[in-house]
């Protein structure tokens, strides 16, 4: 069946209008287009599934629970190849220890999680690619780790591509968050929503509940209160989802609200959470804030953190902004927050 492309602006058109004649914006636009081209190739490969070989086959163990898969490596190589066509000085990847130089004099640098949710490759579940575009620093080698230790607030663009039932690109260049969908026949991304807005009050949370016993008390208390539903301080029943692909959780939350948590926990290798600040936390936080949502490490906005190492992990909470703020109130003072008071609970002391 063929669906003629409707008259929607293509990604390139959208970026053309945004960039105008501004040379710095043009560099960002060209970089985003190169990344988008890489992801259309990744999407085409993923669509073959096992017919393309064992894309979920294990490669070397990166430690800390991150087993590298065949598709992690292929996606990484495809992105680097496409970035050669863009004004990009260097690329850092979750899959490589050190950044690599791309084009001398390029005004931007790119950090990528080439394949997010790689534990789902074998299961035909949504997976994704996450990217962050930063200015190339003038004073240091752009292909050094130090070049990437910039606050998320300094990102020029960020986005992810989700390889799901359809392939979608969610992008921000600092002018709201846009949703583009890949037309399966033309292989071009077309604009579907120009201003994505995170719904503020969905009753849904995403967390890996199997880690409950490893969490700090504030996170346990917060989740306990959600689980109490109508009988608890929230006074409503909550639903839970956990896909184990952050892009899938982020996408669902952008479309219908809710909150995602991957907190730090007591397991070895998880004391700073699981997600990577530069490749995952910062781009998702930029997209969330631009869509009216929020993202924090449980205390401070993710975008205000200054990374100290390239592959640094970060506890990550994102989604509807009031929910992100509430988690921070639990973390700051779990025993004293008004929301836990019996006064506010349906079955509390003052219930008639
Ligand atoms: O298996 P867990 O511990 O629930 O972790 C799932 C999380 O790990 C991630 O898969 C990490 O991403 P990678 O696949 O890029 O390593 C997130 O997408 C996801 O939210
Ligand atoms: Mg990831
Ligand atoms: Mg990854």
From TrEMBL:
Ranges where the Fructose-1-6-bisphosphatase class I N-terminal domain occurs: 34-193
GO cellular component annotations of the record: cytosol
Chain's gene name: fbp
The enzyme's E.C. designation: 3.1.3.11
Taxonomic classification: Bacteria, Pseudomonadati, Pseudomonadota, Alphaproteobacteria, Hyphomicrobiales
Binding residue positions for substrate: 116-119, 208, 260-262
One GO BP annotation of this record: fructose 1,6-bisphosphate metabolic process
Xref: InterPro entries: FBPase_C_dom (IPR044015), FBPase_class-1 (IPR000146), FBPase_N (IPR033391), FBPtase (IPR028343), Fructose_bisphosphatase_AS (IPR020548)
Record protein name field: Fructose-1,6-bisphosphatase class 1
Entry keyword set: Carbohydrate metabolism, Cytoplasm, Hydrolase, Magnesium, Metal-binding
């Amino acid at each position: 069946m063929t669906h003629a492309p409707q008259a929607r602006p293509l990604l390139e058109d959208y970026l053309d209008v945004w960039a105008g004649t501004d040379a710095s914006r043009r560099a960002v636009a060209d970089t985003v287009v190169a990344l988008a081209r890489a992801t259309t190739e990744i999407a085409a490969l993923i669509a073959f599934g096992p017919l393309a070989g064992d894309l979920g086959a294990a490669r070397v163990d990166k430690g800390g629970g991150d087993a590298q898969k065949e598709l992690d490596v292929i996606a990484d190589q495809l992105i680097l190849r496409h970035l050669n066509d863009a004004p990009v000085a260097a690329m850092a990847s979750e899959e490589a220890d050190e950044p690599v130089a791309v084009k001398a004099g390029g005004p931007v640098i790119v950090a990528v999680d080439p394949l997010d949710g790689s534990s789902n490759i074998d299961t035909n579940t949504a997976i994704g690619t996450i990217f962050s575009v930063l200015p190339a620093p003038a004073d240091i080698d752009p292909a050094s780790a130090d070049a990437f230790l910039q606050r998320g607030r300094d990102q020029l663009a960020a986005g992810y591509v989700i390889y799901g039932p359809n392939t979608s690109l969610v992008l921000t260049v600092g002018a709201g968050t846009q949703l583009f969908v890949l037309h399966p026949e033309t292989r071009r991304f077309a604009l579907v929503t120009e201003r994505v807005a995170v719904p503020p009050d969905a009753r849904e949370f995403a967390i890996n509940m199997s880690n409950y016993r490893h969490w700090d008390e504030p996170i346990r208390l917060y989740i306990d209160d959600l689980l109490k539903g109508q009988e608890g301080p929230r006074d409503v029943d909550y639903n839970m989802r956990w896909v184990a692909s952050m892009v899938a959780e982020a996408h669902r939350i952008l479309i219908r609200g809710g909150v995602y948590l991957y907190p730090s926990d007591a397991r070895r290798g998880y004391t700073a959470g699981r997600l990577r600040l530069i490749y995952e936390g910062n781009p998702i936080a930029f997209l969330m804030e631009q869509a009216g949502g929020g993202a924090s490490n449980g205390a401070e906005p993710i975008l205000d953190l200054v990374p100290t190492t390239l592959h640094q992990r970060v506890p990550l909470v994102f989604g509807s902004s009031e929910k992100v703020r509430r988690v921070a109130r639990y973390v700051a003072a779990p025993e004293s927050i008004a929301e836990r008071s019996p006064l506010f609970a349906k079955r509390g002391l003052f219930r008639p």
